[in-house]
Specification:
By secondary structure, this protein is mainly alpha-helical. 56% of the residues lie in helices and 4% in strands. It has eleven helices and two strands, in the order H-H-H-H-E-H-H-H-H-H-H-E-H.
Length: 169
């Protein structure tokens, strides 16, 4: 349920975590306030400058002007990430860091991954039927596609990484 506040908080914390998009300063207490005040209803809202800006953040409890500016800068910095980190950040069930890397290397773009069916997904190393169904199901949900479209519109890009020749074989 994308409207569950507890689930939303978990989703945002995962999205902002060090191994995902690494948005420094976006911790549990701040996320609690953002969700409780309905400033953030999806991870895409983090990139909506009308909702999340240094003035809004500075008005929250235990948040100074400098801290607010640092968080806004960290959110802006997180827009430029690798495709693997972006896939991992989306929080797809059964997709950890290693699988996210494999998916990124195999498909090369989020659009290609989103277009893949379960059969195509199973061609990726270590992706079996359960993981393939999790991925296909995630991208089949309209809410998830809307969030991804809003992230792209905000400038969040997952750049493909080239693999060293030794890793490809």
């Amino acid at each position: 349920n994308p409207d569950c506040p507890a689930k939303l908080k978990e989703t945002i914390l995962h999205f902002a975590s060090r191994r995902a998009l690494d948005i420094e300063g976006l911790g549990e207490k701040l996320v609690d306030q953002l969700v409780e005040r309905e400033l953030v209803k999806s991870v895409a809202d983090l990139y909506d400058s009308a909702r999340i800006n240094s003035v809004t953040l500075a008005g929250l409890e235990r948040m100074g002007e400098k801290s607010a500016q640092n968080i806004v800068a960290a959110i802006e910095h997180s827009k430029d990430t690798t495709l693997a980190r972006l896939i991992y950040a989306l929080g797809i069930r059964n997709v950890g860091e290693a699988t996210a890397k494999d998916l990124a290397h195999y498909f090369g773009s989020l659009d290609a991954l989103m277009a893949a069916d379960a059969e195509a997904l199973q061609r990726v190393n270590d992706v079996g039927p359960v993981v393939a169904e999790s991925i296909a199901g995630f991208f089949a949900e309209g809410h998830n596609r809307e969030v991804i479209a809003r992230l792209a519109q905000a400038g969040v890009r997952g750049r493909a990484e080239t693999r060293p020749a030794a890793d490809i074989a």
